[in-house]
Amino acid sequence: MTSQENLEDKLHGLSDAIGSDDNLVRNVMSKIHSATVSDDAGAGYISRIIMKPSSIKLTAAATIAVVFWIAVSYFSGSTKGTSKVYAAMLEALHYVDTVQVTGWTTRIRPGHTTIQDESLDTSRRYPIEIWEWFTEDGTYRLYDRQGPVTTWHDRDLRYEYQADKNTLYIDTYQSPPRFPGEFQSFAREFESLITRRGDKMILQADRITVLTGPAIDGRKVQGYQIDRDDRREEIWLDNETGLMLENKAYLFDDGRWKQWRHGVFAYDQEIPARIRAYVPPDAERVEYSSDIDPRFEKYHSRLLEIAGYYRDHPLPETMELLSRANGEKLDTWYSPGRLIGITDTTGYWVLPIQSSLADFLRSRIKPYGSLRVPEELQNIQLNVDLITKNDHSSRERVDFVLDLLSLKIVDVDEQRKVWIAHYDGRPLKPWRQVKAPVARGEARHTKTGMDFSSNPHTMKHLFESFAYYQDYDLEADQLIIIDETGLPSDPAEGQPEESAAVSSASPYWRGNESIEIAKKWFREEFGVAFTEEIRPMIVHVVRKQEHK
Amino acid sequence: MRTDAELVRAVQDGEKQAFAVLVKRYEKPVRTVAMNVLGDHHLVADVSQDAFVKAFEHLSGLRKPQAFGSWLLKITRRCAIRSIHRRSNETHFETEMAGKIEDCNGRLDQEKQRLLSAIVKLPRSEKQVVMLRYFSDNSVSDIAGILGRNVGTVTKQLSRARLRLRAMLERSE
Predict the structure, then answer these.
(1) How far separated are the first and last CA of chain B, in Å rounded?
(2) What tens digit of pLDDT does each residue of A459-474 get?
(3) Where are the domains positioned within chain B?
(4) Beta-sheet strand order (sheet of A194-197)
(5) How far, in Å, CA of B102 to CA of A418, rounded?
(6) pLDDT tens-digit readout, B66-112
(7) Using the beta-carbon criterion (under 8 Å), do B49 and A240 form an inter-chain contact?
(8) Which CATH entry fits the domain spanning A44-276: 2.120.10, 1.10.10, 1.10.3470, 2.50.20?
(9) Whole-number Å distance between alpha carbons of A224 and A242
(10) N or C: which end of chain B has fewer CB within 10 A?
(11) What is the rounded distance in angstroms from the CA atom of residue A86 to the CA atom of residue A27?
């Protein structure tokens, strides 16, 4: 038998194995004739999908033909006309392979930001180029360049290159779109108008206006203007396919609508080779999410080891301390260590403790300045993993660890020096403008009076920072600050972190000279003065348990 | 024999029965694509039916009637993937297990699965002629008529497809 015959035999064999369905034609035609599909396949799809209120008729000549109001319009389950149109648009997306968006935006929204980042100039129009598609094997891909920010999704990894900072961020991507209806190009356009309730997407609009306009690229179109609060989206859909061809986004600002984005959509375009073969550039700085950061490889192994341990052992009733067999200190990240298959179902996670006892306790007992740890106990080295839950308070964790070390905290009353902080009520400067009294310059080490960080700090945080460093040796013989300024210690509910901030610098200063520098800084920058008193205060003293 | 494009235009003009011809013509290619994604006979029938109905619903949006075949297969693939997502909580489609499971449970044996995987990787035009030739039992001249191509073109495409398939099968062995 020749190889050709052999292959043809195999092909026929495969055909036989795939089989056929004698009822297919009948079933399909029956469905086509049934009520679920109207008999106008030749007419525009939208015309069959949209269900306008009977009182509303489009006037072809009018630019704005019809205005109707809805309070809440459901994407699923509602018969409201516009929802049906949007649903039809998402449905139509199932039959495309690629989406390309070009246009401009004045608002760049990087995925990775810090509070210190200066906002990009919103008076500029930044060019947009977005490609989204699925590969032959169904893998999602995204190339998204908006001004200086380029995002690239490659299987499970997401890269974001910020050219202005020459920084590449790499993280894992847990829930990539499963089908084109979930493409970001669309989700992003409507995210400000959509509320998610479980699996349901709900479009909340104050007003939806049906628009008509000239053809786009030879395609007849139908437009919709969706208003909600100070936001407006104008979308233009292809009359036949239901696909979005163009959109414009506006914000109501300074008494008028200002356009901040324009997108032109194209489908099933040939993806340029430069896009397919895109490789994120070598950046000066590369930052990984903790779960893939090469520095934490050993800690990941340790977490897997712990998760494996709890597959064979019961989880603790409260907390449990697991020591490391080789006593190795591991690079870890700040957030809790997640245990695969355990954390999500039980709430237990891992707090690595690999420091001296003093370092473990220093930030956990408040008010700062009230903890005393005898010198002979301070250098006990801990290299363990605490299995704990969010239900457990910081103090409970401290007590648990101390108990295992046969230690405890005893509260004693002592006469202590306290600073009572008062505020003179002057208007405060914007927090970014408040700097430390001593310029850092090229200094590598922070000295008294210098900036320690440039994050937003509340007044409470400034007091804590200062007291923390004053009593860094945990002797409980320095000052304790009592805040009577009345300034907010936390942002109001729903407000951003910086809303309660008063400074970008924090006084992590030590030494005698820091006292006068701090007093002067608080007085001049914030109108905060201190009166000194001796008051009875509780001091938390770490002691050995006598019975153990 | 009417070409795909002629049939599509007929449906768009209201001749629904013309769609039945397209269903008969593409039944096997659609089942093949669905089978490749799903890996299970039992699920193929529903997805095939769904794909044809979806294609009918969206026929007005088909800008190139002559591309009906590849467009339909694309829809089929999407329908099959969506079907998997709907069932993902209850079923895992372990195609790599196919070789260990005999045909009787609705899955292809390993060799057939390999061949199927190779077919769906063919370039669009070659994939279509292979399916119409070997799965729908059309002659070369029939395929030329269906696709509105020259007989010579179809012959070349078939020949190239076979070469490609052999190479892919050798690599996968």
Answers:
(1) 40
(2) 999 999 899 989 999 9
(3) 4-93+106-172
(4) A73-74, A200-203, A194-197
(5) 82
(6) 888 888 888 888 888 777 766 554 333 333 222 222 333 456 777 88
(7) no
(8) 2.50.20
(9) 12
(10) C
(11) 29
* φ/ψ bin of A200: left (φ > 0), alpha (ψ from -120 to 50), beta (otherwise): beta
Numbered residues of chain A with Cβ closer than 8 Å to any chain B Cβ = 3-4, 7-8, 10-15, 17-21, 24-25, 27-29, 31-33, 37, 39, 41-45, 92, 94-95, 97, 136, 138, 178-179, 238, 240-243
Given a contact cutoff of 8 angstroms between Cβ atoms, the answer to whether A479 and A418 are in contact is yes
B24 touches chain A (CB under 8 A): yes
Question: Number of helices (H) and strands (E), helices first, in chain A?
Answer: 13, 23
Nearest to B28 among A15, A31, A37 (CB): A15
Per domain, the residue ranges of chain A are 44-276, 294-405, 415-540
Cβ of A120: how many Cβ atoms within 10 Å? 18
Using DSSP, state whether B131 is helix, strand or coil.
helix
- Whether residues A11 and B14 touch (CB distance < 8 A) is answered with no
CA dihedral A329, A334, A336, A339 (to 10 degrees): -50
Lowest model confidence (mean pLDDT) among A48-62, A480-494, B97-111: A48-62
Give contacts of B169 with chain A, Cβ < 8 Å.
7
- Cβ within 8 Å, pair B115-A31: no
**What is the C-alpha separation between A436 and A448, in angstroms, rounded?**
10
Report whether A205 contacts A191 (CB < 8 A): no
**Residues B36 and B82 sit within 8 Å (Cβ to Cβ):** no
Q: Identify all chain B residues contacting A136, using CB atoms and an 8 Å cutoff.
A: 121
Note whether ipTM > 0.85 here.
Answer: no
Residues in A touching B109 (Cβ below 8 Å): 17
pLDDT band at A87 (very low <50, low <70, confident <90, very high): low
Indicate the SS3 state at residue A394.
Answer: helix
- Give pLDDT, residue A204: 65
Exposure string of A170-191, with b = 16+ CB inside 10 Å and e = fewer, is bbeeeebbebbbebbbbebbbe
Please tell me the distance from the alpha carbon of residue A433 to that of residue A451, in angstroms, as a whole number.
Answer: 13
Phi, psi dihedral angles at A465 (to 5 degrees): -60, -45
C-beta separation of B131 from B143 below 8 A: no
DSSP letter, residue A335: S
CATH code of domain B4-93+106-172: 1.10.1740.10
Average pLDDT, rounded, for chain A: 80
Torsions phi, psi for B12 (to 5 deg): -65, -25
Are B94 and B107 contacting, i.e. CB atoms less than 8 angstroms apart? no
Cβ distance B28 to A44 less than 8 Å, yes or no, reads no
What is the rounded distance in angstroms from the CA atom of residue A87 to the CA atom of residue A74?
Answer: 10
